[in-house]
Amino acid sequence: MIEFHRVSVSYNGHIVGLDDVNLAIQQGEFLFVVGPTGSGKSTLLRLIIRDLKPTKGRVTWKGRDLATLHDRMVPGLRRQIGFVPQDIGLLPNKKVWENVAYAMRAVGHTRREVRERVPKSLERFGILHRADAFPSELSGGEQQRVAIARALINSPALLLADEPTGHLDPDTSVEIIEVLERVNTRGTTVMMATHDLTTVAHVKRRVVRLEAGRVASDTMGLNGDD
Amino acid sequence: MIDRFEFLVEEAIVALRRNGMMTVSAVNTAAIALFILGGLGYTYISLANYLDTRQSEFKLKLSIRDGADRDEIHEFAEYLRGIDGVSHAVFLPREAEWEKWREEQNLGALSQDISNPLPDQFVITLASLDTAESVKAEIGKHTLFDPEDGIRDAREEREFLTSLIGFVKLFGGLMTAVGLFTAGTLIYNTVHLTVLARRRELRTMGLIGASRSTIRWPFLMEGGLQGLAGGLVAGALLWVLASYLGPYSGEWLGRPPGGEFSYPGFAMTSVLAAVGILLGMLSAGLSVRRYLRY
After folding, report:
1. Alpha-carbon gap: A13 to the closest alpha carbon of chain B (Å)
2. Sign of the torsion angle spanned by Cα atoms A90, A94, A95, A97
3. Residue-range domain boundaries for chain A
4. B91-119 tens-digit pLDDT
5. Record: contact B209-A78, CB cut-off 8 A
6. B243-266 average pLDDT score
7. Chain B residues with beta carbon closer than 8 angstroms to that of A150
8. pLDDT score for B220
9. Is B64:B91 a contact under the CB 8 Å cutoff?
10. A1-80+156-226, which class in CATH?
11. Residue B56: pLDDT above 80?
12. What ipTM is given for this predicted complex?
């Protein structure tokens, strides 16, 4: 589904984001990308949604080199991918249901489809009762749930979550991981970047560890085998 | 299609409402900028029009040789009317002018024995003062023109008015252009600040797959609506100001001689609203552009 072929990214010509990374992600996988701050986790995710282009190497999505994708095609790519950014990225002046509805309306869904699907999605993620709240009125966990609901409202093939448990307490973090696991069992590929190893230890999934922009290990489970 | 348009309009209106203080400040700035621009522009246009109408008051007067017959005079009149820059040419027969003068002076029988000293004359109204010298040169070429009397015109006053018109048009045009630039800059800065405050929103919209036009259009509409509101406020303020100050103004500000001041309030407000929409949309488009690059 996604392949990284000897991918390097450098910022301003000398700061290394990624260094000669080779990686393949299969459809339906649940993958953690772990590593300390600055190890290249966010860079990896940003390459997939074409928020960045590699300095060297190729990133392919379903066989298509993303660097050669025309700018006009980028929204089309992003509509196949649900993205939960590190800063959660909820639109501050929109209510919870409007945040989720925007993702549908922006890609051409009608008002009627929004009325049908948004309440179901909010209910699925346990935030229907907060539908009319603004993001600033939500807890961290609720904000993450809204961001995940928004990322999944258009049924993408892949969900990318950048540090979704970054500012959450351990219980809420586990709750979010459980939500992502449920999403994965429905067939959506999930790729989650985190530095929170305690949370990762709860689940036996593929773990790619990045260090200084390089893949240091690629194992099943936090301490598992290649 | 309608659903899509509704979505974009709704996005713009909701954003304007929920970014209340930013909207108010953008409308205020646009209103002040357009008020200054409108005031400058109206004063400039009124003054330039007034000076243009004053031009027609300057006339050339010339005598023709004695003994010209009716056909020659008719042919000369056609010649004069054919000269580039001549608006009207009116023949003044010497007998009629003499009679008129005598009546004006109330001379009656006293002047009966005096022979008519006046020549036949033409009075020429120019289309523009700039053409006075070339018209005079053309008149001088005709054989019926009497060079002894020459062409009588208020040359000094004419030259002063010509240079005044030139100065007013240049300076006024420059001031209006500066006003337009200032209004554009002020509106751009304010709209840019509203966009800048929402740059994270713009990024998020892009990341969730919204196309550039889906992101851009609500912002353009917001900018246009802010400009429209600013233009309407500025137009209304100028209208109120004009209705209070207009009656005390001189002819140069649009009051016809002896008539009442009439301010084209609806037209001015419409123009300011249109300029506001244009500047608002342009500013929003330029501000958003840098955040829509992939």
Report:
1. 19
2. negative
3. 1-80+156-226, 91-155
4. 888 888 888 888 887 776 666 777 888 88
5. yes
6. 73
7. 208
8. 92
9. no
10. alpha beta
11. no
12. 0.83
